[in-house]
Design goal:
- The protein is an alpha/beta fold.
- The chain folds into two domains: 40 residues; 291 residues, Rossmann fold (3-Layer(aba) Sandwich), CATH 3.40.50.1820.
- Strands 1, 2, 3, 4, 5, 6, 7, 8, 9, 10 and 11 form an eleven-stranded mixed beta sheet that branches. Strands 12-13 form a two-stranded parallel sheet.
């Protein structure tokens, strides 16, 4: 047999070596790619698991954008507590106490009721509660609804009369507990709420009308208009009104505190008609409000800097507003002027808490147990004060 030329053998050897090298390279590349793909898949899976866990935690605790418990970063301190009507009917709360508060120098108390999908910590973050409390030198109390009482942490303003009364009584017990333990001006307790918290704030004001110096509902449905979730949805969309006759009998001639309503003009969750219905309810039920008249021109338009413009209408008595309606242009179902990273919060709107404080300074004082507060038509001492 003829021998193959040397160059052919060399070519064969080189080809085999190249093939082996290519195979080895492909194996290495394949392993590297497999490792990279595996790592990418593992990272994606880990991220998905983390997101699923976060979604599950949110679903279980009912808070859409959780926030850490508030801590003191300046003057004043945050306290946490738990109180109620007994071991089976209690709620947690957060309380901000300014440094200047003492028995010899008591301060006003603002009670803030969060909305659905929120808790005390997230609502404190959304409203910038501590910052405003420091500048106003006041205490801020944030009761917290439990997920056991409502899976979405809504305050139960839309249940049976018995259940609404029980929850209102529980909240009132927390407020009275804090008032008894802290240096609070008893005639200067103000009540504010967002969404379901706004409806519950109005409910509390109607059940304990002489206990609050003023009440604020931000984006809340008209109170006493629903006994179940279906009726609550109807009320939120403007299709149900309150039982005025039953409320009149329950009030027995007592007068409610001055009322502030803040509502976004583009709110589709709780339509703005609810604010108008709450104004009509106050005018219908309370003697002092019945004599009030809307301000000349039916409102004034205000815009501060680049924030959303808003319209203010006052119903005045003796020259002072006893009802104020603020409608914020372009605001949906969100706390006006709230923290950008919180759900149900619009940083572009005017600061709702500051709007409330201005109203407290201007409105007459009806709901007071002190002799000074009982003089009808007399305005309260300013809540915005230092030292």
């Amino acid at each position: 047999m003829a021998r193959k030329p040397g160059w052919l053998n060399a070519w064969k050897v080189l080809s085999q070596a190249a093939t082996r090298s290519t195979v080895r390279t492909q194996k290495k590349v394949g392993k590297a790619m497999s490792k990279a793909v595996a790592e990418a898949l593992a990272e994606t899976t880990t991220r998905q698991i983390r997101q699923a866990r976060q979604t599950t935690r949110q679903a279980l605790n009912g808070v859409v954008s959780p926030a850490p418990p508030p801590i003191s970063r300046g003057s004043g301190q945050w306290l946490e507590g738990r109180w109620g009507l007994g071991p089976l009917a209690q709620r947690s709360y957060c309380l901000f106490v300014p440094d200047a508060a003492s028995k010899s120098r008591p301060v006003s108390l603002l009670v803030l009721l969060h909305g659905c999908g929120q808790d005390a910590a997230s609502f404190a973050a959304s409203t910038h509660a501590a910052r405003v409390a420091r500048s106003a030198n006041c205490m801020i109390l944030l009761p917290e609804q439990s997920s056991q009482a409502n899976a979405q942490r809504c305050w139960n303003w839309f249940r049976s009369d018995l259940r609404v009364a029980a929850e209102a009584g529980l909240l009132m017990s927390i407020i009275e507990h804090v008032c008894s333990q802290q240096a609070v001006l008893q005639e200067r307790v103000y009540l504010l709420g967002m969404s379901a918290g706004g409806s519950m704030a109005l409910t509390l004001a109607l059940r304990f009308p002489q206990r609050f110096a003023a009440v604020v509902s931000h984006s809340g449905a008209v109170p006493h208009s629903a006994r179940n979730a279906v009726q609550a949805s109807q009320a939120m969309h403007g299709h149900r009104g309150p039982d005025v006759q039953a409320l009149r009998l329950a009030l027995a001639g007592r007068q409610a505190p001055p009322l502030l309503l803040i509502h976004g003009e583009t709110d589709r969750t709780v339509v703005p008609d609810n604010a108008l219905a709450s104004v009509a309810l106050w005018l219908e039920l309370f003697p002092h409000a019945a004599h009030a008249r809307p301000a000349p021109g039916h409102g004034r338009d205000i815009r501060r800097g680049t924030r959303r413009p808003y319209n203010v209408v006052d119903w005045k008595l003796a020259g002072q507003p006893c009802i104020r309606l603020i409608r914020v242009a372009g605001l949906a179902h969100a706390w006006s002027g709230g923290h950008a990273k919180q759900a149900f919060s619009d940083p572009a709107g005017p600061d709702a808490l500051k709007l409330a404080l201005r109203f407290f300074d201007e409105c007459p004082h009806y709901a007071s147990s002190s002799p000074a507060g009982k003089r009808r038509g007399q305005g309260p001492a300013p809540i915005l004060r230092t030292g």
